[in-house]
Amino acid sequence: MKKFLCIILIMLMFMPLFSCGDSSQTDFRVLADEYMADFVAGDYEKMMEYEMTPIIASQMSVEMIKQIKEETLPSQYGDYLGEYSFSEIVESSGMNLYCYVFSYDTADVTIAVGINNKGQIASFVILDVKSKVSIDFSENVKETPVTFGNDPYIISGSVISSSDENSPAVVILAGSGASDRYGRVGANAIYANIADNLAKQGIKVLIFDKRTFTYGTEISTKEDMSIYDEYLYDAKDAVEFMKNYPGVERDKVYVLGHSLGAYILGMVNEYLVQDVAGYIFLCPPSDSMHELMIYQLEYLAGLDGEISKEEQMNIALYEAQADNIKNLTEENKSEYNSAVLLNAPASYWLSMKNYDPALSAEAIKSEMFLAFGGRDYQVPISQKKAWYDSLGGRSDVIINVYENMNHMLFDYTGTPSPDEYNIKSEINSQLIDDIVDFIEK
Q1: CA-wise closest residue to 65 among 127, 130, 3
Q2: How far apart are CA 244 and CA 131, in angstroms?
Q3: pLDDT digits over 213-268, tens only?
Q4: How far is the CA of 71 from the CAs of 6, 63, 419, in angstroms?
Q5: Are strands 248-258 and 278-282 parallel, antiparallel or unpaired?
């Protein structure tokens, strides 16, 4: 059975998972080499014999490490090609991160082991992913590199178009994780695919690298990091940029959010200085991220028909952290660090405290289009109810279900599983047609 833990909604950015130790560093390169060699050899029990910080010792297990090596990484990036090499040492949060690049079918994945000054294993994390998925736009579609925003966070992106004539425009807000502008997942590039299809219909599209992709280290070490850092600041700048882009009709700019990018559209609407023509929600969750993650974990664990004792223990660890997030307040936030808050600081979770995406969308005055996939195990179809309860009675809101569509917006049949994401695919064509109709009506 395959697990797909790196792509579930909750994986927000690549950052150290655990942090302990003082700031003065000793070089433990030999220790790091030995630890990573055991990982490659599959000697997971030996990995558990290394001295670890109390936090990571409470979180790691033979089953978890095996799952990362044999299931999670191959599920997301294809077969391991048998090659890895040391790349660099990065100082972070009171430890040194020893970075190693592993070659997989669809990406080069940087995995880091963090060692504090006491020689304890203090972190084990996917730090970076360089996708090998090529980006190919249609013959008459062009990609124009652009930048926008303000120092110190200049954002790089591309405008995808097929004509210089005046036309509507779409700004795409990516889902969770440190996504690049193309949305490369497995064998696919979903945002490039959406942009290409819309551009062929005469609509200009802005895609851009998330701030957490370009400035992951800087963002992850911010003491007050919030959803504003991950999304809202750049969403505002992106909309203003497109409203002033040559050949864009200022009153016909739409914002399209996917997954977590759709979840926060109510916040985006409240934060924007300028109104937009409409919002497009693709696979929008209604439950909070930490609640939805538990469903995802249980679904993946049960794909083989049973949830083992080890899998249940792993789920219980995440349930405990989800409870920590639920109980967070401004008054008690100093009692928690990111290691017990699903790898994000208390400030991040508090920035969404009491946020209800479906209720928040009721305040949106612009037109809305919502799309759900019948085969989406990451945001199951049951999430539709809250949105329908909030918006179903409005004449300016369209809510569609695409029965065979998964979370990556592709059509498949059979039991939904992460294996689908490693198959080169095309975005659901009916979804594209419906989005074009929504924009051009």
Answers
A1: 3
A2: 31
A3: 898 878 877 879 999 999 999 999 999 999 999 999 999 999 999 999 999 999 99
A4: 10, 11, 11
A5: parallel
C-alpha angle with apex 401: 398 to 403, nearest 5 degrees?
A: 160
Cα–Cα distance measured from residue 63 to residue 227, given in angstroms and rounded to the nearest whole number:
32
CA distance 267 to 305: 39
DSSP conformation letters of 301-350: HGGGS---HHHHHHHHHHHHHHHHHHT--TTTGGG--GGGTTTS-HHHHH
Given a contact cutoff of 8 angstroms between Cβ atoms, the answer to whether 75 and 418 are in contact is: yes
Q: How far apart are CA 409 and CA 388, in angstroms?
A: 20
Which residue's structure tokens are 């433990």? Answer: 28
Please provide the size of the chain in residues.
441
Strands 142-150 and 153-161: antiparallel
| Ordered DSSP codes for 232-285 | IHHHHHHHHHHHTSTTEEEEEEEEEEETHHHHTHHHHHHH-SS--SEEEEES--
- Which pair of tokens denotes residue 283? 């696979």
The pLDDT tens digits of the residues spanning 124-158 come to 888 888 889 999 999 999 999 999 999 999 999 99
Strand partners, 110: 101, 128
CA 149 to each of CA 114, 143, 157, 231, 236: distance values in angstroms, whole numbers, following the listed order = 33, 19, 11, 12, 9
Residue corresponding to tokens 């990516």: 174
φ, ψ (nearest 5 deg) of residue 375: -115, 25
Given 3-state DSSP classes, what are the helix, strand and coil percentages for the chain, each rounded to the nearest 5? 35, 25, 40
Distant-in-sequence, close-in-space partners of 139: CB < 8 Å, separation ≥ 6: none
